[in-house]
Amino acid sequence: MKNSYFLPENPFLILLMPLLAGIFCGVVFPFDSWITPLQISIYSITIIFFLLNIFYARLKIYRKPWIGSLLIHLFLLFCGILFAGQNKEINQNNHFSRQKAEALMVTINQEPKQNGNLIRFSSSVTHTVFRDKISAASGSLLVALKLDSAQKNTLNYGDQLLIPNQYKSVDAPFNPAEFNYKLWLQHQNIYFQTYLNPNQYQLISRDKGNPIIAKSLQIRQQMVQKFQQYLHNPNAIAVASTLILGYRADLSQDILQAYSKTGTMHVLSVSGMHVALVYIIIELLLRFLNYKRSTIILKAFISVTLIWLYALLSGFSPAVCRAAVMITFVICGKTYNRHISMLNILLVSAFMLLLYSPDFIADVGFQLSYLAVFGLILLQPIIENLIDFKQKQLRKLWSLLSVSLAAQVITFPVSIFYFHQFPVYFLLSNLFIVLPSMLIMYIGIAFLAFSAVPILAKPLAFLLEKTIISMNNGLLWIENIPYGNWNKLWISTAEYLLLYAIIACVFGWMIHRKKLLLKMNAVFIVLFLMSFSYKRFRSGNQQEIIFLNLRKNFGLICKNGNEAFVLTDLNTTDKSFQYSVQPFLDSCQAENIHLLKPNQNFTDAVFIRQKSLLQFENKLIFIADQDFTKQHFPQKIKVNVVLITGNPKISLNQITQNLIFDLLLIDATNSDYHTKKLNDEAVLDGRKIFILKRNNCLRINSN
User: Fold this and answer.
1) Which of 172-200 are b and which e, b meaning 16 or more Cβ less than 10 Å from the residue's Cβ?
2) How far is CA 370 from CA 329, 363, 382, 703, in A?
3) How many Cα neighbours within 13 Å face the side chain of 271?
4) What's 697's domain CATH number?
5) Taking Cα atoms as reference points, which of 156, 129, 123, 158 lies closest to residue 142?
6) I need a surface site. Which of 232, 233, 420, 590 has the fewest CB within 10 A?
7) CA distance 126 to 132
8) 141 pairs with which residues across the strands?
9) More confident: 478 or 29
10) 373 with 347: CB under 8 angstroms?
11) Alpha-carbon distance 655 to 607, whole Å?
12) Per-residue pLDDT at 487
């Protein structure tokens, strides 16, 4: 077992670590102004390295081997930072945001997705237009195009459009614990977005994209249409399209939730498992080529070509690219009878993909894919050897379970960090899903192969649909088992790293049996528990008011320890509530939640809402809405905050005649005109004012 950890057998482990560190630093931290010093450093290290090799014997470098190691590590570290910086399109001199322009020429670089009457797609800006002058440009732009109610989408990958130069930067999250959509887009090199009406774009030409990608998208769309033609259940069509082809179809919320809560979401994204199943099919179909050397090489060439064609067809996700690269190396190794180190192949594939796109390091799919395979290579043998079953059937079952355990152990910190939940019955759900997912892949591929022959396509489609429905129903049953999912699990970056330190120490001790690892593990566990306990203590003793920025909706949260009073005109099922309100409630471990409408009266020990007044602890808030002018004030009321919401037609003078306040707060439901008017009046009068529109939420401590 220890041989697999022997560094000379896995040299890319030594090379990958400094490159990973450099790329991570380059992606997370701004090194834009350090490009030239980094280039000079890389050239200097290269020259020093060659000079040391020339004068190796004269300078007796062999007595100081650490010098060469240090230079290589620094070289890869600086290269990683440089690659990450140069990969950012916004740093390019001809980026469209750096040029004066009246219009932009863009090429659609992904398959447009339609949701209702809105189409979204990413595009590459190729030229800017200013005063009839066309200049070359670069950069990516996210486009949202509104269609007329009767209009159908006619745009495709590779279409070139002329659009007005009216983009804006993507907003950062306004509310606590909200998903950082801006950062997610930045890791895809998208920094700006634009919203267009039907008459604001002009189609210039078609087929300007990569012809191979265009053809693969066309073929995939035809295959999806075959599923839609022969299958009848919408969820079955969506699962088949997603699982087999990597096509992002809309699944119903209950089915999507079943996959998420049972820890089987990986089945719904084409990943290494799917590529491996395709490889097994290719191996079976090409077995007849195994009889002599020339045909074995031909078989390898055909296999690699088909694997990469499937990767292209399914969208070239990081997980698929990882599997395709690894299988390519495995095929080459088997063809030429070379020793295959799976760990080294895994590291080589990571090295190559990160050189191609450094931003892969921030992709959750990339992280989960590589960690899962890393766990299968290193941890699965250790877990399997923990129990030695004498019966053959039990050994096979335990071997299968150890695969799921290894993958789950190595990936659960990532799952908790990003998705804030843990599936308790992951062993049961993953064991259950193995056979149906394999059958769906094989039947689905057979169906697509014979879809032009109705007499074969119909029974295959029937089997495919029934298998998918059975798999969905099975996962729904597992989801409904009591205590099947731990949710609201929010950990900090430090706790995330501590979890991996604990896992490393546990498995390190199982391999090397060193007491030092046990002592280190105890320290890491204590630090993790201290951090977790401190967060719970702080959250349980915190009283604060959060004025949310919900754009067109009203939102206010009064938090008293683990109790929360939520005033909003949203329902819990609304997307805005799930996106902007629920994450904060989950992150602060709120257990007793009171959901109130904006005009609903409510009385509690620490919270009182009567008409327009709201009192929480020692803070008094007046909510001025459309009914403000209808209210009668016998005398001035002294409050801490006046909250303007619902766009009431009132002036600052009307407010000051009836209210004495410390802060004037204008939420995002008010019009730009009215917001500006009140802001100008408040500034002239020397009043303290805060505007929520296009700003972060306001948090006031009420302790």
Assistant:
1) ebbbbbbeeeeeebbbebbbbbbebeeee
2) 16, 11, 18, 46
3) 17
4) 3.60.15.10
5) 123
6) 232
7) 16
8) 123, 192
9) 478
10) no
11) 24
12) 85
Dihedral sign of CA atoms 241, 247, 251, 257 in order: positive
Q: State the sign of the Cα–Cα–Cα–Cα dihedral 187, 188, 189, 191.
A: negative
| pLDDT in the model for residue 2 | 45
Task: Check which CATH number belongs to the domain holding 119 and give it.
Answer: 2.40.50
The total of other beta-carbon atoms located within 10 Å of residue 74's CB is 18
332-369: per-residue pLDDT in tens?
888 887 777 788 888 888 888 888 888 888 888 888 88
What is the rounded distance in angstroms from the CA atom of residue 317 to the CA atom of residue 655? 56
CB 47 within 8 A of CB 103: no
Give, as one character, the DSSP assignment of residue 605.
S
Closest residue by Cα to residue 529 from 569, 586, 491, 485: 491
664 vs 650: CA distance, rounded Å: 13
- The residue type of 178 is E
- Bridge partners, 559 (sequence order): 544, 564
Q: Is 160:214 a contact under the CB 8 Å cutoff?
A: no
Domain count across the chain? 5
Looking only at Cα atoms, what is the longest distance across the chain? 101
| Pairing mode, strands 168-169 and 160-164 | unpaired
Sign for the pseudo-dihedral over CA of 471, 477, 480, 482: negative
The string of DSSP letters for 490-544 reads ---HHHHHHHHHHHHHHHHHHHH--HHHHHHHHHHHHHHHHHHHHHHHHHHT-EE
Domain boundary among 177, 194, 209: 209
Query: Within this chain, do residues 243 and 313 fall inside the same structural domain, yes or no?
Result: yes
d(Cα 691, Cα 681) in Å, to the nearest integer? 13
Check whether 703 has a pLDDT greater than 70. Answer: no
Computed from CA positions of residues 533, 536, 541, 544, in that sequence, does the dihedral angle turn out positive or negative? positive
CB atoms within 10 A of CB 69: 11
Quick: pLDDT tens for 395-446.
888 888 888 899 899 999 998 999 898 888 888 888 888 889 889 999 999 9
Instruction: For helices 234-245 and 454-479, give the axis angle rounded to 10 degrees.
Output: 100
Q: Which helix (H) or strand (E) holds 172?
A: none
Q: CB under 8 Å to 381, separation ≥6 — which residues? A: 1, 4
Q: Which residues of 209-225 are buried (b: 16+ CB within 10 A; e: fewer)?
A: beeebbebbeebeebbe
Structure-token pair, residue 508:
């390190």
Q: For residue 610, what are the contacts with CB-CB under 8 A and spacing of at least 6? A: 601, 603
Query: 581, 555 in Cβ contact below 8 A?
Result: yes
What is the span of the domain harbouring residue 48?
A: 2-86
Question: What pLDDT band is residue 680 in, cutting at 50, 70 and 90?
Answer: very high
Do 280 and 414 have their domain in common? yes
Q: Do 479 and 589 belong to one domain?
A: no
* Nearest alpha carbon to residue 555 among 636, 452, 643, 627: 643
Query: What residue type is 183 in one-letter code?
Result: L
User: pLDDT digit string (tens) for 295-340?
Assistant: 888 988 999 999 998 888 888 777 788 888 888 888 888 888 777 7
For residue 462, what pLDDT is reported?
95
What is the pTM (predicted TM-score) of this model? 0.85
